[in-house]
Amino acid sequence: MIAPSAPNPMLEVSDLHVVFGTGRLRVDAVKGVSFSVEAGGAYGLVGESGSGKSTVLRAICGLAPVTGGTVRIDRREVETPRDKGFYRTVQMVFQDPYGSLHPRHTVDQTLAEPLAIHGERDAEARILGALREVGLGPSFRFRYPHQLSGGQRQRVAIARALILRPKVLLLDEPTSALDASVQAEILNLLEQLRRTFGLTYVLVSHDLAVVAHLCDRLLVMQHGEAVEETSAAALRTGTVASDYTRSLVAASRGYAREPAEREPVLRSSG
Amino acid sequence: MSGAPPLPQPSGLRAWLLSAKPGSRAQARLGRAYLSWRVFSRNPLAMLGLAVVVALVVLAALADWIAPFSPVSGGDLRTQRLLPPGGPYLFGTDDQARDIFSRLVHGARITLFVVALVSIIAAPIGLLVGTVAGYMGGWVDAVLMRITDIFLAFPRLVLALAFVAALGPGIENAVIAIAITTWPPYARIARAETLTIRNSDFIAAVKLQGGSTARIIWGHVVPLCLSSVIVRVTLDMAGIILTAAGLGFLGLGAQPPMPEWGAMVATGRNYLIDQWWVAAVPGLAICVVSLGFNLLGDGLRDVLDPKAAR
Amino acid sequence: MANGEMANGEVEGGTAGAGSAESIRHSPLAIRPLLEVEDLHVRFHLRTGTVHAVRGLSFALGRERLGIVGESGSGKSQTGRAILGLTPPPGEVTAKRLAFDGIDLLTASRRQLRALRGGRMTMVMQDPKFSLNPVMTIGEQIVEAYRAHNPKAGRAEAKAKALAMLEAVRMRDPGRVFALYPHEVSGGMGQRAMIAMMLVTDPDLLIADEPTSALDVTVSTEVLRILDDLVSERGMGLILISHDLKLVSSFCDRVLVMYAGRVMEEVRAGALHEARHPYTQGLMRCLPTLQGGTHPLPTLDRDPAWAR
């Protein structure tokens, strides 16, 4: 079940534990999750709410505490607190495009901030370049978030994540707040950006189809634990090992009315 | 420029301000300010408040030209004492034979001085304490908020009295005393606001860019808390004016012969029955200006803080 | 009343033998439609101009499952609210005809409307967290809902009814759930409690606005199954409003596809591949599939003519 380490791993997570609170309030959000992603690969984390999939992402980038286990980026173990070099390598795109942009900052300010933090020169050209990369024209540069649609906001968030030229992009449900047609556009954009810049993706989603579309390999999680690691190809052919994964696959097909169809799924021992 | 939508196009400047595709940072800011102004100017009471405050500023700035007499030296004590309103003396004269109107106009300066200085001192302190406490959490929060609680535990005028008694009477000390007693509510507001912001994704995004704590607080948290603090400060202006007047009334604020409105009411107290205008006119001025700031604050809240709007 | 009692009796067997419901589900439509909507318009008069959210919508609903699908801003939710008279203040609702079981909803008195709403027609919203009263136990709320529409019912009767209803939505321990507050239950349980509360008055029409989009996939299947069985057993009319084309088409008997306040087309459930309108086709194609669709995904080109 443990992933065979990729030949050229960009991101390795081994036996990751995340615990919030102590005593009676102690919550074990992630319990010993391991996976690795080769450079230029795309890896999916699938599960329902409370499965700890988002917490894994937040632990990788330092927004949640790593209580046990290790996280390696480019074969080097990350330090706590993360240094500036880490943030140049790893960036994240959040789920809610309405909450991830500062409401009082124009697109220009939002994109200028990372450049200012890292003392980058040539901000003017890089901001325009970043907007072009995500398919937004220069006319968007001085707009406030409330003047943008959900899809446009998510594009700005992606531009912000990419402006420092990271190698790893962590995507936390990047399309779940968007309409289906906008989701398709963002997924296409993410695919194209990965090809262009040779990015490594870790995609968290509750939607199996989205993960299977973008990722080659994926990890199914439940209650903070890894259920099984499988591949998009295996999902396609239906050769998955665990009942839980199978029930997720069944649910993603829509509503099945006939009880006869669902019973075997729940009963089968695989 | 081309492709006119069915709506009637507003004229040049307005179109430029309302453009959905601003071409520069300044245009984006001005457009936003213009939209706020449109909401604000639709509220007649808020506009009345603004008019009062603007009038106060104009009075203070042009006091030397507006006031017909000297505010400190009076006329003939035998014939010009306690004259009723009318003639050359618009609001009559006081017990030192000084023109009350002139004193009122010059008093506007003192009022404005107090109000401006208090807000310049108190608002930043409150904002800083509140955002730092709210953002850092833990023991920093505990320590800062307990200090705030200590200041909040005393009635404002009593605490100000104690400070002035210690520092000595005078308008500057009164300002410092009032400022020290005004900041705690701002800290509380800023902290409450910060708590709702600090776990949002856009703050997490700055953290992930490697932004320092100071940068996050100053560049990302403070701008969002600023509007509610500004609203609160404006609403507090009335209280500040009243406290300053109260200190003046007790003889602990501005010292004679400074034309401070509270002190003017205090001297008029002796003639309240027969020469009512001596106390009533500065009293009315305090009342009008306080009301003006309150209306302005209410209007600002509707613009800056959509949550509190009806 | 009798219908309700019967339903309660059936519930225990209902989970196992869904077959008994089968016959009711496929019964022919009543002669008079349950709900008639003709040329429905919803407009919001704002300072910045009028927003025309629903523009000339017409349909008739029998005792069946109708799906309304659309993207955000298509007017699908406003349609549901307009039928129940829940359009928020600056909104204006006009229609040639808007009738429930022959009662004209546009001219009905407030009192009449109140009795209908929550009694004979009800709504399940997206997030139970916002629809349940946080300071009342779930059981109390169901009792309250029942007694509001059956004033003669005694407390004991109402409580029995509430417990039966909680059982009908397959709460494992109805007695325990009865005494819980909304924050003490999970999202799926909250949504089921919500459904119990809405169905305790034996409504004829249930409007469900994104009832499962706040829930996990496995939980939402469960909630849908409960809705499905209850609708079949009681012979209700159901309008399921959702953004999820796949879900709606697999759950409902027929589907209205909305765009920009209009119905683009009506599709028979299970016959989505026969959809002719380019919008419906585009919506279907832009969804990623497990089978591994095309890379890149086809995107939807919106034709301005659709909105005209």
How many strands, what sense, and barrel or not for the largest sheet of chain C?
6 strands, mixed
The low-confidence parts of chain B are: 1-8
Helix content of chain B: over 70%
Q: Report the helical percentage of chain C.
A: 25-40%
Q: Quickly count the helices of chain B.
A: 12
Helix/strand order of chain C? HHEEEHEEEHEHHHHHEHEHEEHH
Give the assembly state of these chains: heterotrimer
- Give the overall shape of chain C: globular
Number of extended strands of chain C: 11
Characterize the structure shown.
The complex is a heterotrimer of chains A (270), B (310) and C (308). Chain A is an alpha/beta fold and 270 residues long. Chain A contains 10 helices and 10 strands. Chain A has helices at residues 53-60, 84-89, 107-117, 123-133, 150-162, 180-197, 208-214, 232-237, 243-252, 259-267; strands spanning 9-20, 27-38, 42-46, 68-73, 76-77, 90-93, 168-172, 200-205, 217-222, 225-231. Chain A has a 6-stranded mixed β-sheet, with helices on both faces. A 4-stranded antiparallel β-sheet of chain A has the order 2-1-4-5, with helices on one face. In chain A, a hairpin with a 6-residue loop joins β1 and β2 (27-38). In chain A, α3 crosses α4 (123-133) and α9 packs antiparallel against α10. The longest helix of chain A is centred in the last third of the chain and has 18 residues, at 180-197. The radius of gyration of chain A is 19 Å and the shape is globular. Residues 259-270 of chain A have low confidence and may be disordered. The longest helix of chain B is centred in the middle third of the chain and has 37 residues, at 100-136. Chain B contains 12 helices and no strands. The two termini of chain B are 37 Å apart. The relative contact order of chain B is 0.13. Residues 1-8 of chain B have low confidence and may be disordered. In chain B, α5 (100-136) packs antiparallel against α10 (213-249) and α10 runs parallel beside α11 (261-268). Residues 1-30 of chain C have low confidence and may be disordered. With 308 residues, chain C is of the alpha/beta class. Helices cover 40% and strands 22% of the residues of chain C. Chain C is built from 13 helices and 11 strands. The chains are: A alpha/beta (270), B mainly alpha (310), C alpha/beta (308).
